[in-house]
Amino acid sequence: MSKMVSEVAFSSSIIEPQGTSIMCLGCKSREILFDPVMGEQVCGKCGIVFAEKLESLEDGLDNTLGTVQNFSNSGLPSSLTHFDKGLSTIIPYSTIDGNGSALNSEQRGNMQRMIRWNKISTSNRSHHRNLKNAFSVLLRIRDKLSLGQPVVEKAAYYYRKTLDLNLLKGRSISGFVVACVYIACREAGMVRSMEEISKSIDTDHIFPGKCFRFLSRRLGIKTPQIDSRPLLSRIANNAGVSEKSLRKAAQMMSVIKENSISSGKDPNAVAAAVLYGACLAQGEKLHQVQLAEAANLSVVTLRKRLQDVRKVFPEVPNGPNESIGVKRG
Q: 97: which of 11, 25, 91, 207 is 20 to 30 A away, CA to CA?
């Protein structure tokens, strides 16, 4: 059923095709417009919508000429997360042909054989089967961790590069997928640990760590250093730290980041130690066990990193009782 749209729906993004042969059934006008944002074909005079949700029309736009070209050969955009990059021909199961006529029994048998051989031809290589298995794991990680599409595309790019260099022979597919996702997250500035990514697919994080170091050497990848400041708010929320202590920890972290004492240390442990030191400086009572559980590390690691924090901030008390005594004095 046709529907009317107001003039507000029309904007500068609506493009008028040149030499269109479509005629409006209501006002007999040939001014048929296409809205690439809404995916609709609309009459420019009376506003009748001829077609909607046309996903393939955007690929037929010629941005240089501002016109709509032939849409019959356009399709969904390609993606590195598909084993064939989304470029293979897909033959759907159907009982009618392109003209809408029903297929007879012989034609249906031929169609089923074509579909079967088309599937075999696209999956008869170990390269394709490897990519199918790897990208199924990659999409599971994307759904569990809510990763953005640019990060997933970057991880798929690194995995394809690893497979092309024949670095996967005799090694785990899931381990290299986790390593590629970790590299993509590091380059995008996302705080995702190797344990967190491995846990999303129920695998161990030790082998993905080895894969990460192996890829860094062979591919020459230099990942940027992890910024510990985004970890402060996560640990503070899990431990129930006050906003005053969190702001104090952010100030201390900006100083420690410029100091070489944090080089080579676990960013999560450094953030937890700085947060605990800020709580001591503000006189806020917080148990080390509580903060260590919130940061998912051991109490021993927290105490070692706290010693490093005291080298930069000697005024940080040794314990909550000492901080209270200093505050009262």
A: 25
